[in-house]
Automatic annotation (TrEMBL):
It is a multi-pass membrane protein. Its main location: membrane. It comes from Paractinoplanes lichenicola. This is DoxX family membrane protein. The lineage of its organism: Bacteria, Bacillati, Actinomycetota, Actinomycetes, Micromonosporales. Pfam families: DoxX.
């Protein structure tokens, strides 16, 4: 998911993502670029056992930080797909944040994982 959305920050849906940035934030194009790079870096970090817990934690925080853009997009009607309404977006966000949280929790609970 993070690989696909990270790529979408640069091709395909870039204009839509720029329009999702809440109006009070500066440099929407730069914010979309930075968050796209962070999503791609996080997706790469999930591939390795040593970096997966940190990558998942950072991606979860990134999802929380980007949630206002989802709220803005839903309220402004920027996209029209049924899954773009506020409730489905919120539920999807909860699932993704929970999935991100599960990785470090599992890692830190596993015996011998801090070696």
């Amino acid at each position: 998911m993070f690989l696909m959305t990270g790529v979408a920050h640069f091709v395909g849906l870039r204009a839509e993502m720029v329009s999702m940035v809440p109006p009070g934030l500066p440099a929407p194009e730069l914010l979309v670029t930075v968050t796209g790079v962070l999503e791609l870096a996080g997706a790469a970090g999930l591939l390795f056992r040593r970096t997966a817990p940190l990558a998942a934690t950072c991606l979860g925080l990134l999802l929380v930080a980007m949630f206002p853009a989802n709220v803005h997009a839903a309220r402004a009607g920027i996209t029209t797909a049924p899954g773009d309404a506020l409730l489905p977006r919120t539920l999807m966000q909860v699932v993704f944040v929970a999935a991100c949280a599960a990785i470090p929790v599992r890692y830190w609970r596993r015996p011998g994982s801090n070696e």
